[in-house]
Amino acid sequence: MRIVIAGAGEVGYNIAKDISDAHEVVVIESDEEKIVDLERLNVETIIGNAANVEILKKAEVKKADIFVAVTGNDEVNLLSGLAAKKLGAEKVIVRVGNPEYVDRPVIKNHPLGYDILLCPQLVLSTEIAKLITIPGAVYFASIEDLEVVELQVSENSPIAGKRIAEINIPEGIIIGAIHRGNEIIVPKGEERIFPGDRLAVIGWSGQTGIARRIMGIPVVKNVVIFGGGTVGSYLARMLDRSSLNIKLIDSNERRCEELCSMLRRTKVIYGDATDIDLLIEEEVGKSDVVVAATDSDEKNLLSSLLAKNLGAKKAIARVEKGKYVELFEKVGVDVALSPRKVTYLEVMRQLRLMRVETLGDYEASIAVLEYVASKKLDGKRIREIKFPENTIVGAIKRDGKIIIPKGDTEIKLGDRLYILTSWKNVEKIDKMLS
Question: So where are the chain's domains?
Fold first, then answer.
């Protein structure tokens, strides 16, 4: 494939790095320092404004299978996307940060011609809402009727210290993987579960709630959101329709007034999320979940740690810089999510025959792959397929039914395989099964 990428920021650079060995990649960037960083990759670089038609022609966008606009400027992304489509690019993916341009997280087949228009901040809000409404979830992914939820084992969980064979797991649910530190383990019956482990539980939509009850995970009632910007306000609007007790704290008085008129059930508080006296006064320590969603990574980290120190059970933080994700989670934040991951994953999905979801930030996460079995796999048993290490076929969908497979399960043409693996193995599996 020929892929043209507009923008060599964190997202654009990572996309180029991960696909340049398998595809023909051209990167357009106006910052010469970023162009220097690209020289270590197997890509063609063009210096200039991606919204300039002459620059797009120089990049031979007319031959592009995919054009990806991920510069830091929404208007440049939108204009370059329109021009690329007009010039002949087969598929156009555009990222926008301002929600004024979109009314929902992802729009496919946009009337103006974009194949995919996505707002990472709104997608991030939706992911956070899922984690709040699914108690105990650290990460969540869904593919059609299948759910894969990563649940963290607490010290007082009834399954802590037990072997998997000792847990009464109902039929139709499987513990597909264990995320322990930086290691991803494909568990067997004798594998023991420890506090701090993250279990990737697979089951039909709604069924994973049974696993949460087995693990003794309490129901979420009280939620506090720090920041009323794009992420915080969209999250509050989604949760405002639920039965949760929600508080939103923002340091902009005018913004608080706007949110008060927008939200019916949410208590909006004018103040600083890092003011410990305010947090004590508003009983943030009694919350089940706090969400740090300001535009500042530093403030999100500090407010999360303050809330946890006061007694909040779980902290979810928005992280703009991808390199901070691991740091946040190491120092005490339960879940750190980056809006940049959303764009990266959407492009990765477009480049593969299989559908890819992920549990966690993509570099150190469990990837969930959906693959439709071709003639290449028809009649083969699971154990006959030489998958990479730490890979498991967690489920098979056949004739509308979910099968939890074993080693001797035979694959049939048209089966949908749901494969759990580490992210580094995705490319190998893609080549293996395609």
Answer: 2-118, 136-214, 222-335, 342-433
Which residues lie across from 94 on neighbouring strands? Answer: 69, 117
Q: What is the pLDDT of residues 139-166, one digit of tens each?
A: 677 766 677 888 888 888 899 999 988 9
- Rounded Cα distance, 5 and 27, in Å: 5
pTM metric for this prediction:
0.79
User: Which CATH class for the 222-335 domain?
Assistant: alpha beta
Is 342 within 8 Å of 116 (Cβ atoms)? Answer: no
CATH of the structural domain 2-118, one choice from 3.40.50.300, 3.40.50.10210, 1.10.760.10, 3.40.50.720: 3.40.50.720
Classify the C-alpha dihedral 100-104-109-115 as positive or negative: positive
Beta strands in 96-252 (DSSP E): 106-108, 116-118, 137-143, 146-152, 174-180, 183-185, 198-204, 222-226, 245-250
Phi-psi sector, 105: left (phi>0), alpha (psi -120 to 50), beta: alpha
Q: Mark 394-403 as b/e (b = at least 16 C-beta within 10 Å).
A: bbbbeeeebe
